[in-house]
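Methods — Computational structure assignment.
A single polypeptide chain was analysed. Its primary sequence is given first, followed by the predicted tertiary structure written as structure tokens.
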Amino acid sequence: MIRKNSIKAKYLALVVFSMLIFAACSLETPNALGDYKKETITVDSLEAQSKLLTKEQYSIDSVCSLELPQNLEYYSVRRLMVRNNRAYVQINSYENSVYVYDSNGKLLWKTGRNDVVKSVSDSDGKIRKVGKKADAKDEQMVDPADFFVDDNDNLHIFDRGAQKIFVFDSEGKVVKTIYTDRDNPYAVGLMNNGEYMLSFGENTCGAALATYDEFGRIQKKLLPFGQEYNFSVANRCFFQNGNRLCHIPLFSDSILVFNNDKLEKVVKLDFKGRFITDVISDVITGEVKKDETYKISSFDGVQYISVYQETDSWINVCYALKKQYGERLIRKKTNESFSGNTLFEGLQPFTYLFLLDDKLVFLAQKDMVEYLRRQPRDEKFMEEYNKSAPKVQALIDGKIKAPAIFYISIK
């Protein structure tokens, strides 16, 4: 069960962030975050599962099968995003690439290792021109950690390993590379005004969160750097849904929700004393000892928040537990809570939930669909098959080609 309460905050209150309570440094601007709302979501039961939705309680509004290269035999999907009538799927195979699709599932282009670079920014912000063929060693992506899309269909990929932001235009050409190695951020997000937001895991500039312009220069320090952590958590801590950019500070139980480049609210997740920094915070910030990793992995509570997505209609929260992941899906207008791990009765080919306005967008992966197709159609299988929506049945029957994106509305 989840309970949600909202109040209006008139003044800046950095103490809402659990890992920044003891921040030693100060911000250059006393009200850097501006005015915002505070909201608390109480999670009473971490492991609770909601009742599954029957096929009469939701509708599959549309399905879009995705085109894949014929030589792509072995791959794994890391992320799904839909924006401006395009779908973006991060696929890890021989190389870690983002595949870009139109609204009909046609592959428009994908990122590669040796893309054309038109201009590159040095760490001092100056633009230097390079030839049509950039140096492959210098410009190839090493560790694409996250990506974002702006209103002009430009794709921005943060490469944590290379400490660079690669910017692709709508046709798939690299038009800019921004070096971030001077500041060494842990994660990068993109705001609607074209500025980047950087999150730091180490104190390189005195900030835990700061904005970055297109030339690789820090513009505003939003949060002071507090604790330095000896352990890393999920790769992602920024989530883009429409005009919103949500940020989960490292090992924090509070989320910053930006809307149209301004901080809309801070959402605190109250796990009833079962969040890791409430119990064993010294393990995370203290000196690494032989048994510290075991203490974190065996902690019987929420180790960290891995996903926070929000639209005007929905909130999706995922968190890491001792032996599994917990997930909650909240319908904002009714405050209904769904478990999220498994939403629907019947066969379950869906992964990678993405919130698009009032719709739930899922990816049905090819390997999962093929696994279900291989199952014997015995009594148990047919019982689950008959509980499934007609379009899920068509997918299993081979009438819909996988992989496919499903757009779903809850009634």
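Note: Confidence is low (pLDDT under 50) at residues 1-30, 114-138.
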